[in-house]
TrEMBL record:
Domain of life according to the entry: Archaea
Listed CDD domains: Radical_SAM
Identification of the protein by name: Radical SAM protein
Cofactor(s) annotated in UniProt: [4Fe-4S] cluster
Domain Radical SAM core: 11-244
Organism: Thermocladium modestius
InterPro entries documented for this protein: Aldolase_TIM, Elp3/MiaA/NifB-like_rSAM, GTPase_Obg, rSAM, rSAM_sf
Database matches in SMART domains: Elp3
GO MF term (any one): catalytic activity
Pfam families recorded: Radical_SAM
Alphabetical list of Gene3D superfamilies matching this protein: Aldolase class I
Entry annotated with the keyword Flavoprotein: no
PROSITE patterns the record matches: RADICAL_SAM
Record keywords: 4Fe-4S, Iron, Iron-sulfur, Metal-binding, S-adenosyl-L-methionine
């Protein structure tokens, strides 16, 4: 299949059947953490990238074959730049009965058509990595016309009109948007559109800019505490966002400790990895530090 992939396991979306509607790497942002690399087609106008009927044909086939929880529209860039996204979302709701999600940066929600295109979906995942114009320009590097105010107003309008769930993702970069004052501003921005859930993330794959490194596990926990003051549900997302953790089998202990440096894990999760990769649990617990978030005990390194 050319457009449909998976289903892939996801902590947030269960088994997610993905549909990629934008070619590499067409985006209206150029995030420093983007795992697809730097944006090569930097546009903010929608385009007719692919044949809509070809995508529909694949979706029709895939929904019959696979067992999945979400049909998820994404792109090797920003999916709202595909001119037929609205039609696909509306049609997907009619031809199958699972929830439909769209992963967008949210940068085009100030446009009436984009809000209308996304309205039939069940869940819209947006990005909120900054709480002001300065940090927005440093982390997300959007097209000039997308100001932070315009971006936030788009999210606020969408919240008022949209009956589904909005999940906000906050990607934290060490030394840039993980400081207390930045987090307070991000919290304030989130509170203006009241997302149903907030997911705190850290870059886990090679980012567009080498210097965009993940914050420490302690910073992630601290971010969780700060953002919890502003929004109802805050989650820290696991290292590779899979149903289970993977470590390098050649150096399992080292690899697990590296994971614990950027991703807090529960004791049970550590136990599972140790059992699977034959790691001495005592060795890990000897060096791991306990931290608490939302009443749950995590371990970091
Ligand atoms: S919005 Fe998404 S696709 Fe676009 S640059 Fe940022 S992370 Fe990459």
């Amino acid at each position: 299949m050319k457009y449909v992939f998976g289903p892939v396991p996801s902590r947030r979306f269960g088994r997610s059947l993905g549909v990629n509607v934008v070619p590499l790497k067409v985006c209206n942002w150029n995030c420093i953490y983007c795992q697809l690399g730097r944006t090569t087609t930097f546009i903010n106008e929608e385009r007719d990238f692919f044949e809509e009927k070809e995508i529909k044909k694949e979706i029709e086939e895939a929904v019959k074959i696979f067992d999945y929880d979400y049909l998820t529209f994404i792109g090797d860039g920003e999916p709202t730049l595909y001119s037929k996204l609205g039609e696909l979302v509306k049609w997907s709701k009619k031809i199958q009965d699972k929830r439909v999600a769209v992963f967008t940066n949210g940068g085009r929600l100030y446009l009436d058509k984009v809000r209308e295109d996304l309205s039939p979906a069940d869940v819209i995942k947006v990005s909120t990595d900054a709480g002001d114009e300065r940090t927005f320009r440093i982390v997300d590097r959007p097209r000039r016309e997308i100001t932070f105010t315009k971006f936030l107003e788009g999210l606020q309008k969408f919240r008022k009109e949209f009956s589904g769930e909005i999940w906000a993702e906050v990607m934290l970069i060490k030394g840039i948007n993980d400081k207390d004052e930045e987090l307070e501003k991000i919290g304030e921005a989130l509170s203006t559109f009241n997302p149903n859930k907030v997911h705190i993330m850290a870059p886990t794959r090679p980012p567009a800019e080498k210097w965009a490194s993940p914050p420490s596990a302690e910073s992630l926990i601290k971010a969780g505490k700060i953002l919890s003051k502003y929004v109802r549900e805050v989650n820290i997302i696991d290292y590779v966002e899979r149903g289970k953790f993977y470590v390098d089998p050649k150096n399992p202990l080292e690899s697990l400790l590296l994971t614990l440096k950027i991703q807090p894990m529960t004791e049970e999760e550590i136990r599972e990895v140790c059992a699977e990769y034959n790691i001495d649990l005592k060795e890990v617990m000897k060096v791991a530090k306990e931290v608490e978030f939302n009443g749950i005990k995590y371990f970091v390194y």
